[in-house]
Amino acid sequence: VFKTLFHTGLMTTAMLIISPAVHAETGLENKIDKDYSYLEGLYTHLHQNPELSFFETKTAERLASELADLGFIVTEEVGKTGIVGVMENGEGPTILVRTDLDALPVPEQTGLSYASQVIATGVDGTTSPVMHACGHDVHMTVWTGVARQLASMKDKWQGTLVMIGQPAEERGSGARLMLNDGLYERFPKPDYNLALHVNSALPAGKIAYSKGYALANVDSVDITVQGIGGHGAYPNTTKDPVVLASQIVVALQTLVSREISPLDPGVVTVGSFHGGSKHNIISDEVKLQLTVRSYDDDVRDKLLNGIKRIAKGQAISAGLSEDKYPIVKIKDERTPSTFNTPSLVDRALPSLASAVGNENLIEVDPVMGGEDFSEYGRTADKIPSFIFWLGAVNEEVYAQSLSQGTALPSLHSPFFAPDPEPTIKTGVNAMTETVLGLFNAP
Ligand SMILES: [Zn+2]
Ligand SMILES: [Zn+2]
Q1: Which ligand lies nearest to the CA atom of residue 413 in the structure?
Q2: 392 with 202: CB under 8 angstroms?
């Protein structure tokens, strides 16, 4: 769901000096090197067989069998196509590690030998080429690698490991479905939730994180602006919805600039404006599509209520009667903002530093993209949760983009091509260290 997320390159970077965790002598890096050929095979398979949101059945089946082979107790069809694997290993905290499963209706143009050729039909009935353009194939491979490492060193940790494969992240509803299907009731309730997401503007080998807000509230709003149509030559006999919709678009600009605090981030973008059919016809309807972003839930309410008020107010000003007021619909498919629990981030940082080194661990500003990982930390239990960024860009490609000033392909781009080996190895190392650090914390 990130779209242009990190496209603008690395934002503010504050280097922190964090002393690496005194970690058990696990020889983790060597073990990950030895396991890589297996993970590479899995990655290639997943990349070539992407499935759209809510159709991740073969993907879920494959991951379920990966976990079952390692000794996890696996339950399938949690939240439609989701899976949950549980490994109990003595007294200790319960840690949940989440991957998403779904791909996107994007025609792959990376030119890779293992590029996706899949064409499929999504929940909206549209048939199109499918690609793992958001890197969820990397997430699944890393997640499997983490499960393999932790299962192979049960003498090095104590507690309960809950590995979940979540459907439909791209539709912003998979996490909620798994929670509504009893994720926290039917399975051991986690003390911590962890996840990672590839980053299309960060070189492989690096990890970035935000403490506190990391990703935004993402809402979609549809406005149907009604008017009274007629002949273009006789505007006085009509109520022109194109003029009215234009005034609404301009008035909406005051929401962020005049109504919310300058210290609170917010975005109101009208991404689509459709009305009319011909030069000389005044139509009776214009359709607007908006994306609305914020971090704070009060700001979100202010923006959404403001949109309703402005749309109605402009219609009144145009002299329309109540039955012709704009119809404002806030879509159910939304992603709430992601908050990385500061105390958990603080506890995870030494492990991340020990995995990648201080010089490769970067604090970054939050972004206005969305991730439904947020849902896991937003239930009444307020379970501490943390998602971090995994660099995925080939180092040479990254250096070239810097020297030539060219943009790197963003997430969701048909050209997005992560550098598998260093990305996956770093991901497995960073997440395994983090989980071990939390299991072994005094
Ligand atoms: Zn995405
Ligand atoms: Zn994603």
Answers
A1: 1
A2: yes
Output the CA angle 342-347-352, nearest 5 degrees.
110
Query: How far apart are the CA of 132 and the centre of ligand 1, in A?
Result: 9
pLDDT averages per 10-residue partition of the chain, 442 residues:
42 52 69 98 98 98 98 98 98 98 97 97 95 98 98 97 97 95 98 98 98 97 98 97 98 98 97 96 97 97 98 98 98 93 98 97 96 96 97 97 95 97 98 97 80
**Which residues does 342 contact at the CB level (< 8 Å), separation at least 6?**
211, 212
CA of 134 to the centre of ligand 1 (A): 4
Distance 162 CA to ligand 1 centre (A): 23
pLDDT of residue 8: 39
Name the DSSP letter for residue 77: E
Cα gap 133→2, rounded to integer Å? 10
Nearest CA to 186 among 81, 57, 83? 83
pLDDT at res. 332: 87
Q: How far is the CA of 158 from the centre of ligand 1 (A)?
A: 34
Cβ neighbours, 10 Å, residue 316? 11
Catalytic site positions: 102, 169
Helix (H) or strand (E) holding 297: helix 297-317
Reference 370, options 421, 405, 335, 321; nearest CA is 335
Please identify which residue in the block is written with the tokens 């309960």: 160
Which ligand has the nearest atom to the CA of 171?
1
Token pair of 207 as six digits: 């990890």
Proximal ligand: closest to the CA of 136? 2
- Measured in Å, residue 326 CA sits from the centre of ligand 1 at 31
User: What residues are neighbours of ligand 1 (ion), with CB under 5 Å?
Assistant: 1-2, 134
Question: Which residues, including other chains, have CB under 8 Å from residue 69's CB and lie 6 or more apart?
Answer: none
| pLDDT the model gives residue 16 | 54
